[in-house]
Amino acid sequence: MERETMCIQAGYQPKNGESRMIPIVQSTTFKYDTSEDMGKLFDLEASGYFYTRLANPTNDYVAAKICALEGGSAAVLTSSGQAATFFSVFNIAGAGDHVVASSTIYGGSFNLFAVTMKRMGIDFTFVDPDCSDEELEAAFRPNTKAVFGETIANPALIVFDIERFANAAHAHGVPLIIDNTFATPINCRPIEWGADIVTHSTTKYMDGHDATVGGAIVDSGKFDWMAHADKFPGLTTPDESYHGIVYAEKFGKEGAYINKIVAQLMRDLGPIPSPMNSYMLNLGLESLHVRMPRHCENALAVAQFLEQHEKIAWVNYPGLPGNKYYERAKKYMPDGTCGVVSFGVKGGRSAAEKFMKGLKVAMIATHVADAHTCVLHPASATHRQMNDEELLAAGVSPDLVRLSVGIENVKDIIADLENALAEV
Question: Which residues carry this modification: N6-(pyridoxal phosphate)lysine (predicted)?
Fold first, then answer.
């Protein structure tokens, strides 16, 4: 089945006389005839539901669709992309462990790793995604449990060399985790390039309409946990908090990782999405294959317009010929990258601020990757507490504008940019 068809039909197949759309099972609990029936669920001897904090049919239908789109073996939804990022690592790393991560990942993920998870006793080494082979090799330690990167970095727009990092991770007996939020499985399927686990902030392109916050984790089912049993005791030794089950033995490499998240982490931490949110996410997924080409087409046209404009100092878009990552993007994402473009306005911070005030179609918002064209000037918004020197040290130039190109008519988007630049 092709991805376009999967967006519509994967994950839920109604039987004769059943609802065409996935049902919204808006219930916290589920009834059983006997205690023995429920006991089989608690022993993971039977499939089913007993409490939505662990799992819910609506959520599972949508998770199955995303799993199919990514070409994985199992998947689970979370209440946010941040929760998905956290669970993807915490499921296999604990106090005293170490993880290698790209230094250019989304700032929220960076803080999660460098601050919050560090307080939990997990150490992270951040490497430049374009580091040398020697630098990458030096980042690994005997207690390294995973490598983490983003297909397209948010907001740096650096294209990650998935195949290279997958080979390095596997040489050290650990999985590669890839955040595929910006590319989506329409433009890139990291599992096909060696990634073992894929995460998403479904809040972005998958929902696509600013309607629901959510996340997803997909397991490729290809990493052999038992072959590296000493590194992953949580999967390869008995879980005494769940009747002594050994996940890798019970569910095999295809199901161990996700079943542990559901049975253990969801049980204890509970960041499950509401069934209604999952239903709305599914509506977004049904048009994902239509929207992504339009985002990419519009973004490329905008990038080409900006590249030729006399008041623009620089443009960064991986789909633009001449971009540092253009060839790598063509390898991993031959049909397009994403709809996010960053650029600098000549004249620095003050010129960028004047430009922002002149926009009418593009909405000023912290969000990215949805149907609306959204724009942000970090120096006067999310990073306004920093002076110019501090901004540069953080990798955010004072003139930087991040534009998330929507699916409106591109003529209107470009006219809006042209009018705003005329006021600078």
Answer: 204
Model confidence at 388: pLDDT above 80:
no
- Domain architecture of the chain: domains with CATH: 3-276 (3.40.640.10), 289-423 (3.90.1150.10)
Closest CA to 197 of 178, 214, 184: 178
Give the separation between CA 148 and CA 134, rounded to whole angstroms.
Answer: 18
Count other C-beta atoms under 10 Å from residue 41's C-beta. 17
Q: What is the pTM of this model?
A: 0.95
- Backbone phi and psi for residue 197, each to the nearest 5 degrees, phi listed first: -135, 135
Torsion of CA 281, 287, 288, 293, to 10 degrees: -160
Which residues touch 134 (CB under 8 Å, ≥6 apart)? Answer: none
User: CA-CA distances (angstroms) from residue 419 to 72, 354, 372?
Assistant: 46, 11, 18
Asked whether 217 and 99 are in contact (CB, 8 A), the reply is no
- Report the side by side order of strands in the sheet with 400-404: 312-316, 340-345, 400-404, 374-376, 363-364
Would the pLDDT of 128 be above 60? yes
